[in-house]
Amino acid sequence: MNISKYLNKKQDSSSLAIFRLGFGFLMLYSTIRIWYKGWIRELYIDPSFHFSYYGFEWVKPIGDYTYLIFLLCAISSFFVAIGYKYRISIILLFLSFTYAELMDKTTYLNHYYLVSLISFLMIFFPANAKFSIDNLISKKSYEFIPKWNVDAIKLMICIVYFYAGIAKINSDWLIDAQPLKIWLTSKYDLPIFGGTLFQMDWVHVFFSWAGMFYDLLIAFILLYRRTRPFGFFLVITFHIMTAILFPAIGMFPYIMITSSIIFLEPQTHKKILDRVSSIFRKYFQKVSSISNYNFKKAKFSQTILVIFFSIQLLFPFRYFLYPGELFWNEQGYRFSWRVMLIEKKGFTEFKIVDGETSESFYVLNEEFLTEFQERQMSFQPDFILEYAHYLGDYYNNNGYNNVEVYAESYVTLNGRESKVFVDPNIDLMKEERGFSNKEWITELEDEIKGF
Amino acid sequence: MKHLYIKIFIALLVIVSCSKDSDEDYGQNSSQSNVQTTTNSSSGSTTGTTTGTSTGTTTGTSTGTTTGTTTDSSSSQGDTFDRGSILANYSENIIIPRYNTFKSSMDILKNSIETFVNSPNSDNYDALQTDWIDSYKKWQYVEVFNISKAEEIMYGLKMNTYPVSKERTDNNIDEGKTDLTNPNDWSAQGFPGLDYMLHGIGETKDAVIELYSSESKYGNYLLTLGSVMNENTIQVVDDWTTYKDVFNSSVDNTATSAFNMMVNDFVYYFEKGLRTNKIGIPAGRFSSTPLPDKIEAYYYSKNSFGNLSKTLALESRKGVEELFLGLNSDGVEGPSYKSYLDYLETEIGNSVKTKLEEATLSLNDLQDNFLTQIAENNTLMLVAFDALQTIVVNLKTDMLSNFNIAVDYTDADGD
pTM for the full model? Predict the structure, then answer.
């Protein structure tokens, strides 16, 4: 197929409109949920120290004004959903949500990253072409939009699933059935299956393999028309199951279920939208329907998307650039669709040494970190290093000189007995933050085969 | 056809969105983040004498039976581990008997306070001191149960926050204060408060008795401490008559279930209550120089009445061992964290059991008087610290990982 021919293909604008409605309202709900649960204060305002992404140290909570960021996020989500001043609303949603996400990496979640990526993509698409407030204002709506707009969103979802599947092709997951062995066994309180099936070894192995095949294949099952109804059934079953098994994954199942609506046939989208919009028909009487949306700056948008997807395809493999076991040192672990993949817990304390007097003492983490932060810090090397520098700077400014910081750290991975995680003889103040290999992390001393 | 599966989809979405959030209510997050320290000094007897004979007061049905299963399931195939049996064993054979024992000693302590205040003489002083020591030792077994009423009224912090605040206590004595619910008063009551009232307001026994004879404000505050401690204890212990059934059946893997909270209490107490407060802080592990005045039962040692810090540390270690192994009053192992770890086919349970025994040896190597131990050979204190530290590592990483205890109120997708 010829590329320019493909780029000229049309699709019913209902597809994007439906997706816009689903995504907008889901984001509105997510934001209200975070607010309602008190997490804005607990996670962003109360802690005195925040873990930053390298290069984004300037993104910080802004005291009580942090609520305004989430307010902006909620309002722009709502405007996106109803299609009011769509372009500016989706840009504001992307910026406010991404800012909130970058404020503290303790709260890193793969689906937050997905939300940022999808809202970035949506900036380039005319999702307000149909059934939007913008239509009422301009008195114009459009029946068709370029097919590649819809396909870009599908591609994004496909990448998420397929890469999540690749990540599961490893010996811990498939052979030892870890960490599902730990996780399922601990779900003894679920009715019927909890105390029986979930305690059995073969069930752990079965779930592991089923999870891998689901992730690898679901995108293809959804893409082909014949298997699509079955795929949709699988999506719902699988994600509802994960929601029940792992309540802590929060909104992830709902975001994936909602996103998969994009895979339905355009006629189905149109039928749904017609059904919904019939209630509001009288408002749309003065809106004149135009056939094709006139996509401006198509070349520019297409160039951005090509760059965007090239990065998306390559970025998850950056861990090849680092020696050692990825699950242990986590160099190149995040932003790569490794969702619910490993079970890791750590215990890490820091020794402060005054370089001039050789006085030394250990830090009580509770004086600087919340429980949640301490738990996350204890097994993730970049957290450990950032916190070590924070402690070193703090004590340099509070009566000590040439402070050296050493970590006493133990980590357990996928049920292996805990072992020393950080070389206790390395002064972490001398180690730079950044993307270079962290040689101060110990070896796992066990081989995990596969990706 | 299409309508059908859209309808099913929407119906399922509704069902799920209603069903899911229930598990993650966000709640009392860090009620445990205060430093709690408590100690006491008894004339340096080596190990504790207070093993679990439950003086049969009201609720104490110490039915030495270990309900349910089983520690021996070597394979996880098919048979399931009954977590309720752990809770039943804990509540019936450990928590309630230990609380009843403590409550009786608390009654006796309150009486001897009253007797002493009525006639402050040498004999009554000695009797009071003995009862304070006995009660303080029994306290070491119950501080870890920071659940239900105990958590609600901050029982542990009120009973054993140390070091005691001399300034605050002196103030309260002068003011004749009787309401000690303000958090600032936590360090002016409980066992450390009594320590100060018995061994700190004067440097010798005669000097202390003289103060009680000459000024009523001392006696009044001592009476207040006794009755506040006793009232709090009655509240907490009585609560267990009704709470026991709730406790025994709350086995869910959720942040608010009794099973999970008890695991967290246990790990928290081991790390903070035992490791950090009794050994770590006085030994200067967390400061550039040792802080001997932060030992448990400080005034008792400081003014040479006797030594209790080591005894209390040993009692406390025994208490966590009892809980970890599920020991009943005859010292027989029952359903416990240890047996649960065995069921999960990890060696951690045995490893911790051995390390708990080794920790006894390191603690026994210490002098009865922690003040001189720290001054003369603090290295031994740090050795004892390390012996406890290695257990904390196993509990906080391996045990919590294998139990997969839900502690997060916030979302996390497992990385």
Answer: 0.87
